[in-house]
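Practice set, problem 2.
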Amino acid sequence: MDLVGKDESPSASADGEGEAKPDQKSHLPPKLLAKIERNRQRALLLRQARLASRPYTPVGTSNNITKPAHKVVDTGGGFFLEEEEDEIQEVNKVIHQPGPFMEFDYLLCEECGKEFMDSFLSSHFDLPVCDNCRDNEEKHKLITRTEAKQEFLLKDCDLDQRTPVLKFTLRKNPHNIQWGEMKLYLRLQIVKRSLDVWGSDEAVQQAKETRQENREKMKQKKFNKKVKELRRAVRSSLWKKESASHQHVYGPEVYLEEEDEYKKTCATCGHQLIYEKM
């Protein structure tokens, strides 16, 4: 009797638990039941999609080959990329052709005759002279635009419009940083341009002398004009008008027979008074 009672008690308890679950589920509100059903359907769809993309192979079969883990690459954009070994092997099999060999065009220095790659004068003024042969004091000296116009009597059109147009480099004004940048030209090229414009050095010197003479004449004219104005100002300040009236002092009376008139002459100013007597 005791054994039968012990055997029936577990089955009865199991039946009671099995019947308790549907009873508990029936007591839930319909909204919560609908939410549970939606979650179950979503989980089933996700499982089916996963199996469709990567189906499982049964364990123990000859096709059960474990694939190696994919290599994860950090793109730096906030996500990772998976690279398979097949793709890596295909990339490694690509044969890269060597690039063409290009020879550099070396420049030949006009001063020393040696080859060089680049220099200040070649890059800024198209003058094939290396940096070692550059003479900053005399031959390859840089001058400003104003000096080029004054010393070599060149105009703006000679520097900017006449072909070939002279090259220049820009630098800050050493006298005042707030002023505009200076245009520096190569003195050697300025000398050649002046010869193209004037023809020879003698013509440049003659033009300089002519301009200097004209400049001196203009200065002398301005000086004479200022002196004349100063003299006029001094005379006007010293001259005073006499306020007293002039009194004539006539001499002896003279009779004019032809006109039958009489005449008197002032001894001070020479005024003549002519009159008749009745």
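Problem 2, part (b): a different protein.
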Amino acid sequence: AQAILSQAARYPTGRSSWHPHSFSPSLMAAVDIKVELNPKDDVALRDDKSEKSTRRGWGLTCRRRAARDVEECEPAGYSSLVLQGRSIAASKDQALYQSMAWWSRAESFGGARVFVLAPRGPDGNLEYNVHMQKLLAYVVSQMHEHVVEQAKPYAVVWLQLGDHRISLLSSLIFSRSLHSSFSKNLEAAHVVHPSWGLRFMRLAIWPFAGEELWERFHSHERLQFLEPYMSVATLALPKDIFQYDEFLDKDAERMLDEAAGSSAPPEA
């Protein structure tokens, strides 16, 4: 508004001495202008949708443009990703992928529906070679209706089981192929049993990342640390996930005992 008034002050105070076309294009683009002129003034007005002009009384009012809604964006390749995932869901491998990715009965305490991702082989085989590109395509196809079509909030629990199974480059390429609704409607991502790679990544970005990232990106060493955010019992986790959690506890106890034994003074 101050910029407009300063430009208007450069002209004489006569009623028809200036009009909205006198303003610079950059200024006109920054604000919406409403100009009211006396009916007796002979001022030519353009028929331009970017300007709102009437011929009633003398006056000048300015208002900022209303903030635009975030435009939903569907990158090239997203549709093919969904179709690939749906073809997997209709194939003989459906049961395998259902055991690695599913909508749980849980809702976060913030009201977001929770999706679980647990890449591993049949019977909890951690050595199984998971095709992550196919798995992520399946994940997108399962989440599409809730996240994109219904535009509802969601949270993700990613059970890494000590292995993230995807390179940084591949994860960046995948993220760029996602519909913008996945970012817009994400409440939080919770990584459980994080890999060492993820631990180092979080440590590396800690000095630079803002609070918004840490509010939406959590890492938990054990399942019990999910409890402040959601009920673990409603995640419908298979038995092998809990067994892995117990294995980590026992392994941690063993290492503590070994460390205590090595630090004990030798007997006389």
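Answer key, part (b): DSSP finds ten helices and eight strands in the chain. Residues 33 and 62 are 5 Å apart (CA to CA).
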